């Protein structure tokens, strides 16, 4: 059976993405995003699922930096998971009686307005993950609540008090699938690549983008990340339409090579389609 | 005396940036980045200091989103602070005897390799800020340590065990100064602006960048942020060379207006110069 690694524990949004990717696989929870990559690289799993972008927070920079600097895996797919934050407690309790709320700082921040309106009295306490928050809530002596996915609450047998408490209702996370092997063209693909310049003369980025635009290749996304050598120097990450074997993409990448210092193709893969679009 | 608001408490890197901005001001610590902006907007302070970019982690997305969506303040300056993480405890203690390390998850992540090499036995516990981590360490019954700035350790009268434990030695954070009033041209300025497109046709971003490049205006930085309405739609944030009153910048911005949906100038301000460059 195909093995698929994800950022655990069970109940995480990454697990949901793994299930959406493949609903009869063996799921392998691991402890960190780099470990997802290393388990796949060493053959301990066939594929790995890592979060790369959230509709509210933006890039998952940890994953982006891993793909740029520390991994030779290919992106072979993507999937999008809606983020629905859920408030849970050990027993049914009124919101105004809750003294402490546990969650990962990012989840606390995603529910900031809701918490300010509905639990202004509660102390906010940081946890290292949302699943850990549910455990800490269960062990707390105070009247405590936790913010996590509905699935993490269910797995831990706690009482769901409210669902969908995130401040922005269109909260979604895009995950990418990592593999040791390439994905073949399907006719509706995208390609992720990154590059770095030798210097920062005016116009160099616009020249590069023109290589794609002049060939009718749509740019879906551009992201800049620090190159980690000096403040103000960046690596650019692009998502473009088309497969790297398509002639226009091939030509644009060739033209790029003479203009940039480092160039790395992270993978070509079928675009995620929502259920609506698949009909 | 001029009042300058910053993300407190005393001992934070934001306080260091405030002191670097102005060494005989009244410093006003506040609890969050949005509160820095609202205190300045309401006249409770003349200026505010907020982190916007780190050389390792990249954009401080919270600040970038605030400037794009929720603030009419102008950026009137920038300053760069080196980040030196410091390990402290209540008493002098050997690293191998430490059972727990408190810090904000971002600081734990910045010291990941150091901790794995030198304190593999220690449990990592998340705090809401580095200053809070020092307090929690002081109150802990375990043999605990905290990661924070040296200043936060000194203010809290704890023992500094090690300094400079961050994994990347060139760790720096850029802060911007927010104000209700504009900064006048100095001859060595940069301008921050953001915009959003109506649609995502091929080449639209390269057309925009060409407006700057063709006028010899160097692009210092480009950042994309989710527009928070739909996954895959972005607001672009640009830092360009020159003041918004300079003729080439004025012309480029005029040319942009017909091509973009939303356009907002966040401010023109003198470039940060290191002590070396100032000589």
Protein traits:
homodimer, alpha/beta, D-Maltodextrin-Binding Protein, domain 2, Alpha-Beta Plaits, 3 domains, 6-stranded mixed β-sheet, 5-stranded mixed β-sheet, 10 helices, 15 strands, 29% helix
Structure notes:
Two copies of one chain form a homodimer. Chain A has helices spanning 13-21, 33-41, 61-69, 105-110, 112-118, 130-139, 150-155, 204-213, 247-257, 275-278, and strands at 3-7, 26-30, 47-54, 58-59, 74-82, 86-89, 100-103, 123-126, 144-148, 159-163, 172-179, 189-196, 219-226, 234-241, 262-270. In chain A, strands 1, 2, 3, 4, 5 and 11 form a six-stranded mixed beta sheet that branches. In chain A, strands 8-7-9-6-10 form a five-stranded mixed beta sheet. In chain A, strands 13-14-12-15 form a four-stranded antiparallel beta sheet, with helices on both faces. Chain A has ten helices and 15 strands. Helices cover 29% and strands 33% of the residues of chain A. Chain A has 279 residues and is α/β, with parallel strands linked by helices. Chain A folds into three domains: 3-82 and 171-179, 3-Layer(aba) Sandwich (D-Maltodextrin-Binding Protein, domain 2); 86-163, Periplasmic binding protein-like II (D-Maltodextrin-Binding Protein, domain 2), CATH 3.40.190.10; 189-278, Alpha-Beta Plaits, CATH 3.30.70. The radius of gyration of chain A is 21 Å and the shape is elongated.
């Amino acid at each position: 059976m195909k093995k698929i690694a994800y950022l655990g524990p069970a109940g995480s949004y990454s697990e949901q993405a793994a299930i959406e990717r493949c609903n009869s696989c063996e799921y392998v929870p691991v402890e960190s995003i780099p470990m997802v990559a290393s388990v796949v690289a060493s053959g301990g799993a066939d594929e790995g699922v890592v979060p790369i972008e959230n509709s509210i927070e933006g890039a998952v920079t940890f994953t982006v930096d891993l793909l740029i600097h520390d991994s030779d895996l290919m992106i072979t797919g993507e999937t999008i998971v809606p983020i629905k934050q859920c408030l849970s407690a050990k027993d049914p309790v009124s919101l105004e009686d809750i003294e402490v709320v546990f969650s990962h700082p990012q989840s606390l921040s995603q529910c900031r307005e809701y918490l300010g309106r509905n639990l202004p009295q509660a102390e906010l306490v940081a946890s290292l993950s949302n699943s850990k928050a549910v455990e800490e809530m269960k062990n707390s002596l105070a009247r405590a609540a936790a913010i996590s996915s509905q699935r993490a609450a269910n797995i831990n047998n706690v009482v769901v008090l409210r669902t969908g408490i995130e401040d922005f209702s269109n909260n979604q996370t895009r995950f990418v699938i990592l593999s040791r092997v390439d994905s073949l063209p399907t006719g509706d693909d995208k390609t992720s690549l990154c590059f770095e310049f030798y210097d920062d003369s005016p116009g160099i980025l616009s020249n590069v983008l023109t290589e794609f635009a002049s060939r009718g290749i749509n740019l879906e996304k551009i992201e800049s990340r620090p190159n980690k050598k000096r403040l103000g120097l960046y690596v650019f990450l692009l998502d473009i339409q088309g497969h790297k074997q398509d002639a226009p993409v091939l030509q644009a990448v060739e033209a790029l090579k003479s203009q940039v210092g480092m160039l790395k193709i992270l993978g070509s893969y079928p675009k995620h389609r929502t259920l609506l679009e698949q009909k």
